[in-house]
Amino acid sequence: MTASEQHAAPGSTVQVTATLRNLGRTPVSDPTVSFYAGPPETGTLLAAVTVPGPLGFKEWILVELDVTRFGGLQLISAEVTHSGDIELDNNQAAVDLGTLPAATFLTVTDSQIHADALKLWWLPPPVYGVDGYRVLRSDVPGGPYELVGESTTPIYHDLMLEVGGTYYYVVQAYDADCVLSDHSQQAAGTCPGCPHACGDLDGSGGAVDLNDFATFAVCFGQIGPIPGCDMVAFACTDMNEDGTVDLNDFSTFAIVYGQISSNTVPNCLE
C-alpha cells in the first residue's frame, strides 16, 4: 500500500493505493476493498470499493482512494474481503501519511569555527513540515545513541569533545506534532587535536595566505562540493554556514587574511 505524497501539508489531498493480488488458485469474484482511518478492527470506515471479478491466479489490480491529510501520524489501512477466502493473513495493508522520511548523506568534518569540535551536516528530507533535527551520538558504532542537541537547520557543531576521540552520529527529523523520523545513516568523525582555525583552509597551521585564498577562489560562488572544492573545503569556505560560498564569507576571510591562523581571534562567527 502506497501514498502519492509523504508527510503532505494538512488539508491537502493524498491518493492512497492498495494493490489487490489473487494468490489463490481459484478465481475471485467481486472482492471488496475497505479503507479505514486507523486499523480495520477499530478504525473508521472511509470507503468500500467492490472490484469487478473474476480475478485469476496472480492477477492484480490497483484500488485507489483520495484522503484529506491531517497533522501528526495518520494511519490509513485497507482490508479485502470476499466469499470463500481461506487464508486471511495477507488481506490487510496500511500506510501512515504522517511518517517523516529520514535525513540523508550525514557528513562529519572538523569544525572550522570551534576548537575541539566536529561539524555535522546533512540533506533534509524533501517533504513539507520539517521543524528541526535531533542529533544523537555514541562512543561505539551502532549505538546506543544519546541526544546531544537539536538544530532547526541541517548543520550542527558538537562542542567540547575529547581530543583524538572518535564519535558516531545519527540524526532524526521532527515536525510540529513531535513526529520523529527514523535515524539517518550513521556517520563518524574523530576530534582533531587542533582543528583548522578560521581562514586556515589548507590546515597548515601557519598564516592565512595565498594558498588558502586559492582554495577559497575555487569554492567561491558554489552551493556544494565540486571538483577542486571537496566536501571539507566547501564546509570550510562557507564560513557563515548559509549554504553558499559568497561575498559574506569573503568578507570574513578578508578580515583574517595575513594573520597567523592560531591567532585568528575572534573566530568566524563569534
Q: Care to describe what's here?
A:
This protein has 270 residues and is mainly β. The chain is 10% helix and 33% strand. The chain has a four-stranded antiparallel beta sheet, with no helix packed on it. A four-stranded antiparallel beta sheet has the order 11-10-13-14, with no helix packed on it. The mean pLDDT is 87.
Throw out a few tags for this protein.
about 270 residues; mainly beta; Immunoglobulin-like; Type 1 dockerin domain; 3 domains; four-stranded antiparallel beta sheet; 14 strands; about 10% helix; about 35% strand
The number of helical elements comes to 3
As a percent range, the share of strand residues is: 25-35%
CATH class of the largest domain: Mainly Beta
Q: Could you tell me how far the N terminus lies from the C terminus, measured between alpha carbons in angstroms?
A: 50 Å
Explain the layout of strands and helices.
Layout: E1 2-3, E2 13-21, E3 32-37, E4 44-50, E5 60-68, E6 75-81, E7 92-96, E8 104-110, E9 118-123, E10 132-138, E11 146-151, E12 155-158, E13 166-174, E14 187-190, H1 210-219, H2 231-237, H3 247-256
Antiparallel strand pairs: 1-2, 2-5, 3-4, 3-6, 6-7, 8-9, 9-12, 10-11, 10-13, 13-14
What is this structure, in a nutshell?
The chain has 270 residues and is mainly beta. 10% of the residues lie in helices and 33% in strands. It is built from three helices and 14 strands.
